[in-house]
Amino acid sequence: MRTPIAYFLVLSAILFAIGSVAVLVRPNALRIFMGVELQLNAVNLTLVAFSRMHLELDGQILAFFSMVVAAAEVVVGLAIIVAVFRRTATTDVDRASVLRG
Amino acid sequence: MDTMPWLTLVIAAPLVGLPVLALWRSISDDAARWVGLGSTLVAFVVSIGMLVTFETGQAGLQMVSKHPWVESIGLSWFVGVDGFSIWLVMVTTFMFPIAVVASWKVDHQVRRFMAVSLFLETVILGAFLALDLLLFFLFFEALLFPMYYVIGVWGSKRRVYAATKFLLYTMFGSAFLLVGILYLSVQAADQLGRPTFDLTLLEQVRLSTEQGRWLFLAFFIGFAVKVPVWPLHTWLPDAHTEAPTKGSIVLAAILLKTGPYGMLRFNLDLFPDASRYFADAIMVLAVVGIIYGAVVAMMQSDIKRLIAYSSVSHMGLIVLGIFAFSAEAIDGAVLQMVNHGLSTGMLFLVFGMLYERTHTREIAELGGIVHATPWLAGAYVIAMLSSIGLPGLNNFVGEFLVLLGTFSVDRVLASIAIVGVILSAIYMLWSYQRAFQGPVSARWSSLPDISWREGALVAPIVVAMLWIGLQPAPVLERLRPTAEQVSQRLIDDAPATDIAADGPAEEAP
Amino acid sequence: MIDVIWLAVALPLVASGANMLAGKRFGGRGAGHRSGWVATAAMTASFVVALGALLQLLSLPAEERTQVVTVAEWIRAGAVSVSFDLRVDPLSITMALVVTGVGSLIHLYAIGYMEHDARPWRFFGYTNLFCAFMLALVLADDFLLLYLGWEGVGLCSYLLIGFWSDRPEAASAAKKAFITTRIGDVALMLGLFVMFMHFGSFEFDTVLGHEGALPEIATGTATAISLLLLGGAVGKSAQLPLHVWLPDAMAGPTPVSALIHAATMVTAGVYLVVRSHALFEVSEVALTVVAIVGISGALYGGLASIGQYDMKRALAYSTMSQLGFMFLAAGLGFYPIAIALLVAHAFYKALLFLASGNVMHGLDDEIDVRRLGGLRLDMPWTAALFAAGALSLSGLPPFSGFFTKDAILEVASHDGVVWAYVLGSLAALVSAWYIARLFFQAFMGERRYQGHAHEAPALMRIPLVVLAAGGLFAGIVLAFTPEGRLATFLEPTLGHIEEGHAGPSTATLIAISVAVTLAGIGIAWRLYRPANEARWTSFPEREPGMSAVLGRAFYVDALYGFVVGTIGLRAGEALSRFDRTVVDGAVNGIGRLTTWASGLAPVWQSGRARRYALSFLAGGAALLLFMVVRI
Fold first, then answer.
1. Is C142 in the B-facing interface, judged by CB distances under 8 Å?
2. Measured between alpha carbons, how far is C454 from B257 in angstroms, rounded to an integer?
């Protein structure tokens, strides 16, 4: 008996929601970052779950892509955060709004 | 048969010096100037080769070369020259070395200045020679950016305002042009089975009357801003005034010509019916521009603005000639494009020399200069006389042909336009009197007169002016067949009803 | 010499180029500066060429006396085809001889006159250039080449009037001259357009027809062309209503006034009308208008001359009046007499100008007759020469004015054109009056100037003596009767003109005309004789009554000044303001609108990453919701 797909989706939705809330309410860049990771992983979970349901590998491949992109994004993102921190001594994203149009 | 790809060479020639300027970052200012001058001279020499190869007496396109570029959308490297474009190419390659030397004293980012100049020359030449509409559009748009930098970086006080206005205004016009080109290409894809921007193929696209008119307007607006046709002219005085001498020369002598050239090449060719339909209205706009530009020029207190408004007036005459459709008028209009390049280019050149000495453009601050610098004033007088159409100098021939050709089509408009001849004398002589004549003023009494370098710049233009004024045959005979062909297509091939309605009235027996 | 007639144009042109480019290096000081001699030599050589051409022409039978020499092609475009063709025929060679002959003498004189100038080479460069253009004008074989010369002489006139451009009035006068004549030139150009529409050519032979045969043209078209050509002539020859530039043009050096504004350029209008007489004759209206323009110019100029205290201005109005007589003659159809008067006038008016130039030279540029007087004591030569010019002009027999100007009145009367005779006689009376006045005021009586007026050097007297001889006797030699020698010579070009037999006999007319002239001199003597000096030397600057009206030349100039200077300037300023505020304002307005609209956008562009995330999320959610609802 397989675990119904709904279980995975609900879990994924919960994780995504937690991630979104983290992104929206925390001013600290690192925490936002964690929130984003959570969102990404929620999506990954969905992908893998659907992959399993359809018995195809596409979803898993996409999940791998997404992980790689996430890793790259972490590198770039952290680098930016460090650079911003060096300049402004804060990781509060709201303070880094000088680039607005 | 000559197999040299002359036109591609002409377009590429100014770029010879570009790698040096781009890669050798520590190049000295002087070396950069010489590289710039050298490259423009190479372009001039190559264009002479093209002129020699050009076969006189042929109306059609010559030295055509066509290579597919982006086949999926139908873009090709398609260049060719005919009696119209050859002279615009020549005036471009002729004026550019002069413009470069005129800016010899620019000492701010010389390397970049020269690089931008060379790029500018290439794209202008490309615009005059491209026969693929998309290719033309690429060049037509690309020339805005070097010009934007020339004005915006090396200009005078309000340079950023002027440069931005220039860029946005002309881009505004180009947007219409692009839409027109794309629409036409889509029609071509429908009718010919594949997308193309090839001018010779697009000519065959059948358009309904409505489509033709809308497309005509889209193209016309695109070019009218560049000309500029009244009332789309206000970017010109600002751009001219704020640009450095070189920028003004290039802008007046060459860049403005892409507008009337585009009308002649694309509007008349692609939409002959619509051209006939709109001709009267455009001629009225042109005449308004002639008079309006002249009157406003009269009232300017800044010499460069005055020359800019005189350009509005003169360019109106060119547009008038194009849309009069008669062979004389088109001959005259094309000749006038060359002439205006020489005379207005020289006005800006000589005034630039004066500006280097006095650092003012205000007529009221000048005065009595002629006594300190008789040769400089003499050069200005020659440019001025050419500009007001004195017979024996270049402008007269073109002006006369345009007015005569227009007179045969529409007497009233020609008679109004001819008033511009009086007005041009008024604003030029009046400003000359205020800026150059009058009592010797202590402030300017020790200005140095023209130097050898400056004399060497002025002399070739004067020679060209006299040559065209007294012996225009070499220019006209290469130009005439093309003009006659265009004129014939527009007048003789018109539907019979048009002739009865709009044709010249019968002479009394 | 006919084949090389182009040399007549080329020689002054080359000399001009040499003088303008390298004249400074020619060396010599003062009157010895070689630039003047180079210029004079070029003019003399040009005169010799013209003379040679004349002799060769005379050796040909009358019907072959029209020769065309093609030099080069000029413009060919569409249906237009114009060459540099020079035409040697009796009319053109007469004009060429006047230009080169009088021109050489004036150049010679100018060497002396310009000796104190800092840059004589520039002056002579311009005058030579002028002569080249003037010769191109008179020798041209088609109207477009004529137009080239026409504009070219206008340019040189501009350059020479403004020669002393540090004087504001000279610079203004130069500009005024150029622009005013350009109004006429535009009419001329329109005339050329109509001509081209009809004939498809600018060539004399095509347009004017051969051998006296009239061109085939409708009267209306001929009237249009003729009147437009007349418009050009009126501008160049300073006739009403485009005359205002001529008096001001006297701000130029005096030799220029003599050369350009008396002997040659201003007569170009007369030449144009006479040259195109075939067209004018098609149209009764055009000829009448020419005659009316002529007689009104003759009267107006003469009356205005009376009111001038500036000798040169008085002579300028006199030139206008004399040109009016020429137009009158042309309008009545007596072209040879118009040309005879033109030739004679070239001599004596150049003489009068140069004589007043001597006065200026001797008296530090004093030219106001109220501050002259008694000059015969210090400057006997000049006084005698001026008297010779005055006698020639006034129309006393046996001098030139009588055989030319009064000949016009005679033939007018014989043709039964009474109005022309009466008004012309009135103008003749005025002519004698103003010229006698000038002589009495400037040369008679006691010295009213300070210091000593020194007589002009020989260099400035010899040319005048030659001119005086020409001025006094050109009439009797060339035109003893209205069908005299000149008329016979000009016949191949101008056709044979039959005089009518109406009105009083010739003897009566001569008596009347002598009486009229003497009356004019008498009036002048009565008003301006030394005994009455106090009456006119004490006028304040703005005199009252009639003399003010005459002095201001009936306020025409003031009216134009008001129209151009006030109304025109206001209109120009208004248009300029319109351009700045409305046309450019609209452009900048659109720019500002765009900027303002984009100013609203930053609400979304807070730069706060979390807000972006929220809107992103909200957008995504909205999209999802939309899809759910759709499905």
1. no
2. 62
